[in-house]
């Protein structure tokens, strides 16, 4: 048959397929989310995230040794305080779980890059991502709280802070606070394009952070909107964000591609708790091949344009990369 163009020619062998592969992966682009709680000598499995645990800081090495060995270089830390209050004052407590976790990790594992999630919802008794005024979150008042939290993380030794609250102007507010306190070199990874998503369900159990009333739709984005995502990304870039993030990942890869093309900042995407939980549930039923699904999800994020991938499967992905199964 006269057919000069035959795409199958380049798929003939493993070596050739790898030569022409378009998406390359490296474990240094993976970020592993990790939950720390107050108290001592506790490690609790998160029932909605089988295989993921909450640790007290004194037991951090149990998971940090595993992370170090896996080849993952970076963690994203969340704190779960014993006591919550209306304003979420635990968020900036110098001896809070996140602050202590950062100090402990940087001391024993200085090579691990520590990113801290900056938000109020784990610390407020009302479960919202900021201070409540009337029946909604007060944007400008919340900026002060977030700035204090971010500063306390930087003071504890955080390598990067990651605001996930979706208040207007929070990147500029946090940048100004860090700069005027001697942390001009601490980067901000902004959860810039964060949708009001049901995919966060299992996380809210993990962090005990479900809102006591209402939902997060007055601050997180409407799932129907694309251009608004671009508006948020460009705003955060203009406010001084160093890295942008799209969240969730799997159902929002259109946004990953668009923002990658429209900005010149590194781009992260977060494969959130609901994505992990769905894979775990289906795998437990024997309906899917867990490893291959996890690989496909990660590759699709990088193919869409992500530079960094935040995943509860980061350790496994690092292993798959090492074994040459992906990347
Ligand atoms: C805090 C925060 C959330 C997640 C990351 N930071 C929860 C939320 O916004 O409700 C979700 C992470 C996940 O689902 O894995 N605001």
How much helix is in the residues?
A: 25-40%
CATH class term? Alpha Beta
The pLDDT mean sits at 97
CATH architecture: Alpha-Beta Barrel
Oligomer: single chain
Describe the structure.
With 327 residues, this protein is α/β, with parallel strands linked by helices. The protein has a single domain, classed as Aldolase class I (TIM Barrel). The protein contains eleven helices and twelve strands. Strands 1, 2, 3, 4, 5, 8, 9, 10, 11 and 12 form a ten-stranded mixed β-sheet that branches. A two-stranded antiparallel ribbon has the order 6-7. α3 (97-108) runs parallel beside α4 (139-156) and α4 (139-156) packs across α5. It is globular. The two termini are 35 Å apart. The model has no long low-confidence stretch (mean pLDDT 97). The structure holds ligand PBG. Residues 117, 119, 121, 129, 164, 200, 203-204, 272-273 line the site of ligand PBG.
